[in-house]
Design goal:
It contains nine helices and 15 strands. The protein has 308 residues and is α/β, with parallel strands linked by helices. β12, α7 and β13 form a beta-alpha-beta unit. The longest helix has 14 residues. It is found in: Cytoplasm.
């Protein structure tokens, strides 16, 4: 089978195609014939050496995967050969999703909603789990709360808008003008153009803020979060900023996404009920992974997906 690998960190051109034997699933694992593998900013950061999750090359990046179960290992009862599944296996360890086939722990996968293709389902796991874990597991967003979502037109952001709306929140989306219509169509109640001036000048106090940028951005976010509110940060927040938050009676919770078959099933239910839909902006053949990474760097709307 084909796999995308790299022997050094660097720009997208370090990604190369190699032939390797198809792996066999062990106990508790399944072999998935890949129908789609999404490209995430975390993939690009690992590829470039900025986020050394996988140590030194050679390694294969990629975690988001959707496809069909081709073989099952001992003890697997939740999935059968022929089932369509999707997931984010093994993160932050190597999953090697940029490939024709992937072996994954069965309990880190969920059944793909019938309404989605494999390409669409592959766009869900890492970004939708990040949004779900931040807004549901950590912030426990409630009906009527005001939720601020920065970078609302991106991978995590476009799911965060939909998940917050599904929970009955009033959603304020911060985007560039090019993505305003997109986030309004997702259900955003208010849209703020961050190029027109500081977003803090245009936001009434919110209960929850999803902050994708961390320390350099969080002090600004704190200006618009009311006392007793929460900032869900996707990157590190320094001690000085945490002290500032505590003085304002605001919780700061920095999250790192983790695999969860149970939460993927809840996300699939949101798809089935019509409350959540992934947006795929572009697809690339597996062997064009480098080109897909170049596309991702342009600031795409939604997700980019590789197709074996």
């Amino acid at each position: 089978m084909r796999i995308i690998t790299q022997h050094t960190v660097g720009d997208p051109d370090v990604l190369v195609v190699e032939e390797v034997p198809t792996p066999a699933p062990g106990a508790g694992e399944v072999l998935v014939r890949v129908g789609g593998a999404a490209v995430n900013p975390a993939d690009a950061a690992v590829r470039a050496g900025y986020f050394p999750l996988l140590g030194e090359p050679p390694f294969t990046i990629g975690w988001d995967v959707a496809g069909t179960v081709e073989a099952i290992g001992e003890g697997v009862t939740d999935h059968r050969v022929g089932d369509r599944v999707f997931g984010m296996p093994r993160f932050p360890a190597q999953a090697a999703a940029y490939a024709d086939a992937v072996v994954a722990p069965a309990d880190q996968l969920a059944r793909t909603p019938d309404a989605l293709s494999d390409v669409e389902a592959a766009a869900l796991p890492l970004a939708a789990l990040t949004a779900y874990q931040g807004l549901v597991e950590v912030a426990d967003v409630q009906p009527g709360q005001r939720v601020l979502v920065q970078a609302a037109g991106g991978g995590v952001g476009h799911f965060a808008v939909q998940i917050a709306k599904a929970r009955g929140a009033h959603v304020i989306a911060v985007v560039s003008p090019a993505k305003e219509a997109f986030v309004r169509a997702l259900g955003a109640d208010e849209v703020i153009d961050y190029t027109a001036g500081p977003f803090t000048d245009s936001v009434e106090p919110v209960d929850v803020a999803l902050d994708p940028f961390g320390s350099a951005n969080t002090p600004d976010v704190l200006q618009v979060v009311r006392s007793g509110g929460i900032v869900v940060a996707l990157l590190d927040v320094d001690d000085e900023t945490r002290e500032l938050a505590a003085a304002r009676d605001v919780r700061v919770e920095q999250i790192s996404v983790h695999p969860s078959g149970e939460q993927l099933t809840a996300i699939a239910a949101l798809v089935d009920s019509g409350h959540l839909r992934p947006h795929v902006s572009a697809t690339y053949a597996l062997e064009k992974a480098g080109e897909a990474h170049h596309e991702l760097a342009t600031g795409v709307q939604g997700k980019v997906v590789l197709v074996p």
